[in-house]
Thioredoxin
Amino acid sequence: MSGVRAEGLAEVTDADFGFEVLSGERPVLVQFTAEWCGPCRQLAPVLGDIAREEAERLKVVRIDVDRNPETTVAYGVLSTPTLMVFRDGEPVWQVVGARAKRKLLGELEGAGVL
């Protein structure tokens, strides 16, 4: 894994995205983020909590869109934060924008991710 940020989220890159996200056993929630993105910073502690609380059911990682343009373009990410869930190597759910923890958990449950 490339690195772990202060929020406890693993950071992935273009180089290891396939291994860390697409080949996993569990669904993987990916935050497409950027250092300059205020809503991304607001969302980071929410995702850190979810990563810890749902660790057995869901892996949570982040990828910086500016440093990893290949993956960003491949999945058509145009805004940050974009949250995307991958299951069995395929994107199965996506939303754009920060949200409260309860709302995000509800959306993930509603989508059958959790």
Summary: The chain has four helices and six strands. Strands lie at 3-4, 10-12, 28-33, 59-64, 82-87, 90-96. The CA atoms of residues 22 and 38 lie 28 Å apart.
